[in-house]
Structures are given as C-alpha cells and as structure tokens.
Amino acid sequence: MSRKVIVTGGAGVIGQAICRRLIAGGFQPVAADLAEAVDALDFTDPSLEGTIAVTMDVSSRASVEQAVAEVVAPGESLAGVVNCAGILRDSFLGELDEAKLELMFQVNIAGMARVTDVCAPLLADGTAIVNVGSLTGHFGRFRGASVYGATKAGIAAYTRYVAEELASRSIRVNNVAPGVIRAPMSPSMARVSGGEEVSASYAMLKRIGEPHEVAEAVEFLLSDRASFITAQTLLVDGGVVAW
C-alpha cells in the first residue's frame, strides 16, 4: 500500500515538522503549499529526504484537484491526509475587514473541506485524516481572534461529522488543536496573543510549544497506534484550556 500522506501547509514551520515526523514513522509526506512557500523549501535538509512537494492553494478547488492528480497516480491510494493549512488575521470588533474574513473562512474551513472532499475517495480503508485546529477554538482570551477562533472551532465540528461519514471504511478522523507554538510570529498573531511571554503565562507548563510536539501528536493519530480513536480533538497546548 502507498505510504503517501498529503500535508497541506506542509512548507510552514509546523508543516515541515509534521513531514519530518511522518518520514520517521514510515510515511512519505507530500508537502502541499502555495508556490512561494514550496519554492523556499530546503530539500538539502536530510530530515526532509523523500518529501514530495506540490503547489496547492486550498482556497481553489481546481488547484486542489490538480495538485492531488500530480502526486497520486491512477489506481494509487493515500495513507492519510493532514489538513494543516491555516491563516490568522486579527478581527477586532469595529475593525472587521471583509477580505480578512473571507480569507480565513476560505482557507481554514472551506479549504480543509475541499481537500478532504477530493482526497477521501483516494484514501485506503483503515487510514486516517488529521485536521490541525487551534486552542483558539476552545479559549476566549486572545482578543481580536474571534473570527479565527470561530473557524478553528468549526474544524472540531467538521472533524466529528466527517468521522461519522468515513467510519464505515474504518477511516479515522481527528483534530489536533495546538496552543501557541514556537515559530516566527506574524503581526496578527503577535497582536492577538500578546507575544510569546504572555502566551506562555497562560499555560500550566509556563512555556509555549515546539513544532515537533505538534508533529508527534499528528503522527500518532495517523498511525495504527491510534486505531480506536476517532472524532476527537486533542489539545496540545501545555494545559491552557484546562484552567
């Protein structure tokens, strides 16, 4: 059986960490991302050896279909899908920008749905989908993240419904919801979170997370070690939401 796993947002910091962990777990990751992000991938990095890169814009059904057709041969199946593509734009009340609103829904929710819709028929029975949400879907202390948080809460709901639809094929669908993870902060993320020091103060563990810690959870849920887990959200947040 093919060991290919499509990882949307695969050229990002968390996406690359997921690709590395999938390689270690015996999978072949397909890093699917925007053209400029794919072009910037460093394939001289030994830890990414074997990764396939493909240009994909999850806001376009045609782009998703074309990318999948490029990397999945006729008759070939997929061993999994990781929906990691996501975008955050601040959305303070009174300053709501229609373009930001549309972009977050098109990428975070509709994009995930497009990729899943295209890829689900290609998944081998008994495989898995892992969606990457956010603690913002379960936590309300990041002012200005209301729309982003709404899209991430939607991922948890989408996960449960799709898990039921695919259960007859023994395909498991779960959601990993990271807290603040160490990566270059966009201006929007810095505004809504208050920065790394403030974000760390919210966690029981008093630190922010590392990309590999999210990747470990993703690979576990894709693997046979999680064979009786489906329709769940796993928070990888250092204990933020628990208190």
TrEMBL record:
Q: Show the GO MF annotations.
A: oxidoreductase activity, acting on the CH-OH group of donors, NAD or NADP as acceptor; quinone binding
Q: Which domain of life is it from?
A: Bacteria
Which UniProt keywords are listed? Answer: Oxidoreductase
Q: Which residues form the signal peptide?
A: none
The record's family statement is:
Belongs to the short-chain dehydrogenases/reductases (SDR) family.
UniProt cross-references to PANTHER family, sorted A to Z: 3-OXOACYL-[ACYL-CARRIER-PROTEIN] REDUCTASE, SHORT-CHAIN DEHYDROGENASES/REDUCTASES FAMILY MEMBER
Q: What is this protein called?
A: SDR family oxidoreductase
Q: Which organism is it from?
A: Nocardioides simplex (Arthrobacter simplex)
